[in-house]
Amino acid sequence: MSALLEVEKLEVGFGRTAAVRGTSFTVERGETHCLVGESGCGKSVTALAVMNLLARNGVRRAARLAFQGEDLQKLNDAGMSRLRGNAMAMIFQEPMTSLNPTYTIGSQMTEVMRRHKGASQRAATDRAADLLARVGITAPGLRLGQFPHQLSGGLRQRVMIAMALMCDPQLLIADEPTTALDVTVQAQILRLLATLQRDLGLGLLLITHDLGIVARVATRVSVMYAGEVVESAPTAGLFANPRHPYTQGLLRCVPVPGKIRRDEPLGSIPGTVPRVGPDFEGCAFRDRCDFADDTCSHAVPRRFAAPTHDFLCRLPA
Amino acid sequence: MKRGWKNIATWVGAAIVGVAAFAALFAPLLVPHDPFLQDLGKRLLVPFWMEGSDPQHLLGTDQLGRDYLARLIYGCRISMMIGVTVTIVSGAIGITMGVLGGFLGGRVDDVVLFAITTRLSLPVVLVALAVVGLLGSSMTILMITLGLLLWERFAVVARSTTMQVRNLDFVAAAWCAGCSRWRILAGEVLPNIASHLVVVATLEIALAILLEAALSFLGLGVPPPLPSWGLMIAEAKDYMFFSPWVIMIPGVCLFVLVLGINLLGDGLRDAFGARTDP
Amino acid sequence: MLRFFIRRLVVALLVAATVMTLAFIMTRLSGDLATSIAGPSATQEDIEAVRKAYGLDRPVITQFFDWVGRATMGDLGDSFFFKRRVTELIGERMPVTLTLGLTGLVIALVISLPLGILAAVKENTALDRAVQIVALLGQAMPSFWLGLLLMIVFGLKLGWLPISGTDSWESFIMPGVVLAFSAVPALTRLTRAGMIQAMGSDYIRTARAKGLSRASILLKHALRNAAIPVVAIAAVQLGFMLGGSIVIEQVFALHGVGFLGWESIAKNDFPVVQAVVLVLAVIYVGLTMLADMLNAVLDPRLRGA
Known about the structure:
The complex is a heterotrimer of chains A (317), B (278) and C (305). Chain A has helices spanning 43-51, 77-83, 105-117, 121-134, 140-144, 153-164, 183-200, 211-217, 235-240, 245-253, and strands at residues 5-14, 17-27, 32-36, 58-61, 64-67, 70-71, 88-91, 171-175, 203-208, 220-225, 228-234, 302-306, 309-312. Chain A is an alpha/beta fold and 317 residues long. In chain A, helix 3 crosses helix 4 (121-134) and helix 6 packs parallel to helix 7. Chains in contact: A-C, B-C.
């Protein structure tokens, strides 16, 4: 059986900028796959490209882009819109601005189901109330009649999640869903996502820059840098045996209570992410890498540390 | 591409305004005939593109035998003169009010806002007509009346830009350095709002010209026999069904001039990055 | 919420009071009103008679308070020329002006909204530029000239529409179009800007992610937000149209309030002139308050919940 989502060598460009230079990953049913990396590495763009929600001047190309075996590149916008909100759903980072301020929560939720499933207003409202309760919102009936500005950020994000689930999606893409929220709320939302994912058997593609989140919820991780996936592995494997220098650097940056010493500086990776054009050759990390040499400016091979653990580096172990 | 089009449009506008300014300044030298000279034997001659035209009168003559081209050129002078003068007067009033309100805030600002609201509620054409009707039609009265009525845009933009600038860091720095209010006003605020006001000024000139034309059309604007384009259209109204060019020509001139000013103003606004709406 | 409206009401009343004063001053500017009314060939006796008859021999302050007192009660005096109560006169002519104004507004919206949406959707294309050009042309067009042109083309040459009078609804089409021209540039620009901003917002991205139809995204989600300021401005534009209708009414011989004002100025009928200025100003102020209310009604965030 094919994977839920298959992405192979995805490239996205905006004019002269190559935002994504060949990412490949798969998301299986019931799996939480985290796409992790710093700002500007192309992880959000990857998600948007999968859903075909890129800005007007965005161009995407992929060797393979398939959802439940169906080739997404063959679909025009009308075809994609039948999948979006339906079998594939997405939630975004900014709950404060992601809901239309002029319509009630209820109407924004019910319209998805009425659009895709032809449901009646009654049926859709009932389901909306159910889902609101499911995501931990009390007095769902009241909330349905309220407007977005009457809800807090955390509540709005829960509404976004509930809205995404209205049509029973198989795949849920969450683009940094907790970044804009308070730390305490973050934990709640993550727990909620994990529970839902388990109960509904969803495939969850979670985009984040926070390794802590990765450690907590991910089944599998893909680390992105400058538009490429530089390492991909099951979570445990990545943390136990990081092979790419960037991943190693990232893990060093995360202070672990009890393991850091007072007089030691916090870990960091010197330098900044380079701007890469479409004809960039070699490893994008070489200027910041402690182990790089001349051979790193040529094409970098993809090597395997284990059957499900690959990384993009030329250096010996 | 959009940039390119905007550029052409701006230059076209500038060219139109340039031609009008030239005609306005050098009118006495440019006219082939005296625009006030009546010749009842040569009434309503047709312009050169129609049959039976007189080469002496390129654009024909009006109903009193006056050379049309001459009246057109003088009309341009009158329009431009009124436009510029009214804008200077209304600008002086509006900018002063706007800057004071925006800079001093508090009660002063409340008063300024109230004045703007009151002015906006007045039916301008009616009030202008009433004043001219009561005081008699003369260029001076007309220009003062319009100047006293058309200042609100200046006030609004001056106020909002002043408020913006007032909150910027370099003004706070000047304040801390011990500069007096008036020095800050002159040295920091005014230079920064000037570009926005220049844009408003160009648009106001266009508005003043249109308003004067409307008033003259209704008979209570520029006093005849002075040739205002609006007046020419009004005079030609009785003949418009038989000799449509008599209303076409001054109308087209009005339209083109106002369009040119607007294009120039829009171009200036894009060039300065100015805002004309608060 | 309520406090906001009370404040606005107070300001509105103050504005009305100020306009009342200004209108009074305006009609007294020429100094001796009696002379103007009596006419150029009047004798000193005639002038005195006029002065007595119209209460112009009283001190100015008395006249002023008389005017203010009566106007607040709704008594706008008597017309010298028509020998009737001004309130009656205005009441008679108001329907024409209102019809004209509303026709103009409706036509303006029917033109501006689709054009603005189109320009926003096709932002930066030739179509967008064409729409902006149309807006520019509308701004430069002298309304009275446009009226005359339309008269020649549609009234005379094509004979489709009546060129004067108010016999049928068709008489309002040409004047309505001319009036609309004055509002179309502003409304189109506002719609376009609002739509562009709405379409670039996060909630539209969410709507697309929900797989909603293009029409639904554009017209249900984006327009609903973009329209809020447009509706408010439309109310204000109506105010401007009503105040500025005098030129159009004159050109098309529509006997509305503007035309009444015009006639009265010509005849030095100052009670009518005063009253018309006041009435039009009050209507404008009322419309701006309506605009605020519409804003509050349409934007849930302003409802103070």
